Every structure is written in C-alpha cells, then in structure tokens.
Task: inverse folding
C-alpha cells in the first residue's frame, strides 16, 4: 500500500487552467508569472495546493494535452525558470504544486513520434502502439493511418493527433501487440519516470495523471495498468516519498490499488457524480436524488478505506461549470457538501465565485463544448475583468459577456457572497480534524428524491453531524449538539435540529 504524504491529510486543492487565469504580459493568454502573482489569493481563500493543467511545449490542438516536449514550458506561459519560481513562491506560502502528467499519448509533433514514423528501425520504433501494416486497423481502437513512412497504423488515445504511447498489451492477441515486459513498453515506462524525476527534482510536488486508467491495452479489468502504476509508485516511494499522485480514472477501487494517493470522481465512469451537480434533475437543485451516488460512494469507500482518498471536484476543464445547473444558495450548499466530504476537495478556478459557463462561443484549441468552462478568470470590474491588458479580441477565450458577471473583488467585499461562504467552509475544515481528508464518514440519509443528505464525519476524538438539505421544505433531524456551521436559518430545540429549505447544518455530535 502506498504511504500517503502527510501534507495530503488536510489539503484543499485549486485547479488552474493556465491559459485563463492571469495574463502578466498582456498577450491575451494567461501565463506562469500571472499565476505566481495570484498564489496569495488562492492561499487566502484557504487552498493549500494547486494543480496546473499542462503548460508544456505543444501545438495546442488539445489545449496542451498534446505535448511535444515534456520538459520544456511552452513559451506562451514563460520559461522553465518561471515554473521553478512558481514552485518557490508556492512553498514559501506553505503550498504544494501538482503538474499535469500526460502519460498516455503525445502530440503527433513530438520528436519521439517523428522518429517512430520512420521506416528504419530506431530507438523510438516501439515507443507507440503500431500495427504491422497500414491496412491492419487495430480492432477496438481508433487509429492514425497514412502519414508515416513506416508501414503501420498507430493507435490513438483521444483526438487523431494524439498517438498512444506503448505500455504493452495485457493480453497480446496479434503478432504486432507487444507484451507489457517487451523492451519497447519498458522503455516508455522508464521515459515517463525520467520526466517525473525531472520536474520533481525542480520542486514540483506531484502529478495529476491524465487518462491514467488507459495505459495498458487489452486490459479489461485494468490488471496490467494497475501493475504498471504500482511500479511507478514504488519508484516514487523510493526517490520522492513526498510526491503526491492523483489519477483521472474515476474508479478508486482500481486506481488506489495501483498506488495512487487520490482518485477523482468524474463526469464519466460509474460514480454517479453527475447525479449531484450536472444532469436534468441534479440533487443540489432540490429535484433529484443522491441515492445512487451514495450507494456507489459507499462501495468505493469500503473497498478502499485507508488506501487513499476519493476526491470530488467542484468541476474541471472538461465539464460544464457548476453554475450552469445550480444557482444562488444551491451553489453554497454544493460547497458545504464538497468541503465536508472525505478526500481532498478540488475547486476549479472561478467556481468559488460562481463563474458561469459561457454559452455559444466557438471552440478554442480542441475545447468544443468544454470551451465555455475555460473562459478568463473574472478578477474585478476593470478592462477584461482584470485578466489581461490585451485588446478584448485577443483574449484566449472571450469573457462572460454578462455585465453582472461575478468578480473576485466584488465577492471578497461581500460577506454574503459565494466566495465568502467557500472561504468560511474551508477555514472550518482546517479547524476541524473530523472534516478533513481522512475523517471517517457514515451516511445516515442517502438523499433519495425529496430527502436531505445526512452523514457523520469522525476521528477518534471528534464527531460531526452534517445535514445537507437541498429540498424546498425544512427538515427536522432528531439530534442535539453545538451548531458549528449553518447555511440558512437553522434552529435547534429539544426535539432536534431544523434545517431550512436549501440549507445546511454541521454540529458537534456525541
Ligand atoms: C483528459 C483531459 C482532457 C484531454 C484528454 C486527452 O480527459 O482532462 O482535457 O482532452 O484527457 O488528453
């Protein structure tokens, strides 16, 4: 079992989409010095760690998830030195920084792929997953064909321009399918370790691993991929024991067995995460049910308890903004939930002020429908919402055009804003061990349609009762204890605690 770096026990993460956070040089695209300058804002909100989406050299056909040099910062974001400076500043503030590791594929412009396309055998011939003839399509996988001198089709992982790196097949079935321990597959794995070594030795604190569950092919139960990550984990344990790893996998029972410290619940996969926030009748709108989510969560929790953290993000760069489906106090309630659950919470930049999904804008850098969730951070009411001094038409993605769009400065000045609520909730979490990453959870009511969600969080010496009521009726729960947090007008008497419609209460329980 992977040892967990201690700093994760009370970490609250903030995800930064570097293109859209803060532009320090006025070219319309966010950059690293911009982020460094804003770290104190994130710290003040209460977050103790950040995850940066990829900021490496890339042709940006998938916003940087198509890397052409893993060890070089893309010039539009600054230099490698700027990244080291960001690490230094974060550490000074007592924060940690995770970079995005994209182990599954590169850009088709990566020098490895250029070499791999050559007919003549070389060091990179087996770096990617190739069939033995351009006429042989890899069954069950999309492929890239007809652009190489080499006779073969190359498996792609996501978009056509993202050829799949070769980690082998768990069960090779065709002559061209290599095993996990073939020299080519081992060399890819070692190359990925070298990339991790490079950034960790410069001050990086760990990685979010992109599409982590997809590395080994023909691996229906993920046994091969789990073994691969276990090997990476033991390398980290040996060389960088404080480095943290979180997976984009969405199946904690598998990823945590692979040695990840944390796994995300996501908008895809079996978790029912969408039932809560993003579906026709989300639980937090008061019209839906959390029951399926809770059922699945419990299963995952029981299977993984103690092995690692199940992390529930407020959103990310791939899904609709939380504020597309939830509004007003429902958003506050969603945060009361997110910040009182086990695992490390992840806040997507701008969600703390309720930034909206920007409708009907053209796709930028392979974003398609995701583009509306990637618009520039809204700092204040100056030009371009304080994001950039560039002319508006040069912004990476257009701003939310609403003149009443929420801003950081407006919300910081308002004690009743979403920002203030989120800040309060994070501060409470920091002050209350039972609410932190490893405090135990027991569900009492599972949030079936029309019902609240009720659970306790506990350590050996503390127990907190949490009542989350998104429905349109008040709810009385038979319990007593000091109320340590309330959303809405919560009252308590001898018969129990009454939580109003769209309200919440946390109280000390015995
Ligand atoms: C992940 C990323 C997404 C990217 C894809 C391909 O899902 O989060 O943004 O497009 O992988 O790398």
Result:
């Amino acid at each position: 079992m992977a040892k967990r770096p201690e700093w994760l026990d009370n970490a609250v993460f903030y995800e930064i989409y570097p293109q859209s956070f803060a532009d320090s040089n006025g070219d319309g695209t966010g950059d690293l010095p911009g982020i460094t300058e804003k770290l104190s804002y994130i710290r003040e909100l209460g977050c103790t760690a950040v995850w940066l989406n990829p900021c490496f050299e890339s042709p940006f056909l998938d916003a940087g998830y198509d890397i052409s040099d893993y060890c070089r910062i893309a010039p539009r974001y600054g230099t490698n030195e700027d990244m080291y400076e960001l690490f230094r500043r974060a550490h000074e503030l007592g924060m940690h920084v995770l970079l995005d590791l994209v182990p599954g594929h590169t850009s088709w412009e990566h020098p490895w792929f250029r070499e791999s396309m050559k007919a003549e055998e070389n060091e990179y011939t087996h770096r990617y997953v190739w069939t033995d003839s351009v006429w042989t399509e890899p069954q069950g996988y999309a492929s890239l064909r007809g652009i190489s001198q080499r006779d073969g089709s190359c498996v792609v992982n996501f978009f056509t321009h993202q050829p799949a790196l070769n980690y082998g097949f768990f069960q090779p079935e065709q002559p061209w399918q290599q095993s996990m321990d073939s020299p080519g597959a081992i060399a890819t794995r070692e190359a990925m370790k070298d990339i991790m070594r490079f950034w960790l030795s410069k001050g990086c604190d760990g990685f979010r691993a992109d599409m982590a569950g997809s590395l080994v092919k023909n691996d229906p139960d993920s046994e091969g991929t789990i073994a691969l990550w276990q090997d990476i984990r033991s390398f980290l344990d040996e060389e960088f024991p404080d480095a943290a790893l979180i997976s984009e996998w969405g199946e904690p029972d598998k990823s945590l067995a692979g040695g990840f410290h944390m796994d995300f619940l996501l908008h895809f996969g079996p978790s029912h995460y969408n039932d809560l926030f993003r579906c026709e009748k989300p639980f937090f709108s008061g019209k839906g049910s959390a029951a399926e989510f809770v059922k699945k969560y419990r299963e995952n929790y029981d299977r993984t308890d103690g092995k690692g953290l199940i992390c529930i993000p407020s959103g990310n760069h791939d899904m609709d903004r939380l504020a597309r489906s939830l509004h007003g106090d429902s958003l506050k309630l969603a945060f009361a939930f997110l910040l009182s659950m086990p695992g490390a919470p992840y806040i997507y930049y701008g969600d703390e002020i309720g930034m909206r999904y920007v409708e009907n804008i053209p796709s930028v850098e392979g974003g398609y429908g995701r583009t509306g969730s990637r618009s520039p951070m809204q700092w204040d009411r100056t030009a371009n919402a304080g994001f950039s001094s560039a002319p508006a038409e040069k912004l990476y993605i257009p701003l939310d055009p609403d003149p009443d769009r929420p801003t950081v400065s407006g919300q910081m000045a308002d004690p009743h804003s979403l920002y203030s609520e989120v800040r309060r909730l994070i501060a409470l979490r920091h002050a209350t061990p039972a609410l932190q990453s490893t405090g135990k959870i027991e569900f009492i009511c599972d949030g079936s349609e029309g019902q609240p969600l009720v659970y306790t969080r506990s350590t050996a010496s503390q127990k907190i009762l949490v009542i989350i009521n998104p429905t349109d009726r008040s709810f009385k729960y038979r319990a007593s204890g000091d109320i340590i947090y309330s959303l809405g007008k919560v009252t308590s008497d001898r018969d129990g605690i009454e939580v109003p419609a769209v309200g919440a209460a946390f109280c000390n329980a015995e």
